[in-house]
Amino acid sequence: MSFELPPLPYAQDALEPHISRQTLEYHHGKHHKAYVDNLNKLVVGTAYEHEESLETIIQKTAQNEKEVGIFNNAAQVWNHSFFWHSMKPRGGGRPSGTMLRRLEQDFGSYEAFAELFQKEGLAQFGSGWVWLVESAGKLAVVRTANAANPSIKGQKPLLTCDVWEHAYYLDYQNRRPDFLKVFLENLADWDFAEKNLAAA
Ligand code: MN
Questions:
Q1: Does the global pTM surpass 0.90?
Q2: What is the 41 CA–ligand 1 centroid distance (Å)?
């Protein structure tokens, strides 16, 4: 049993001009692939060697600091797959239907949510992720450091943006705020978020 790099859900140039083909070549083809390869090496000879569920590995290794290497790579494999699906060509902007209603209910307005998401994405010092989650029945924006994932705190991820520098440096250099704005205005896949919200 070994994990494989899942294909991107769109072509490498499908998110241009917002995210370049070159960024996706590296981010998916090199960074994401390296997490898969590292995970496959690290689980050999451990209790996880024959574990097929990435989610199970993430939950179990999150509790054990001796397994931080496996955790980091397993969580980064999962986080990146989730991130690719959090975006689509011609995405972004204000959602409609259930997602809009829930954002208005829990943040006051779509604009208030968008402001908070950008603020938290910028506030993450160094590498990490900003997430829209459902937590105890309410939508919330949370940020995590490095590979960490809200599911280890029992929160349900709905949408995420990678704020590691490798996610935006080729296209935006050090301008993380510009990348977060483009993610929300041009890339976010609200259908994916709504599907996650509806899932058990
Ligand atoms: Mn990344």
A1: yes
A2: 20
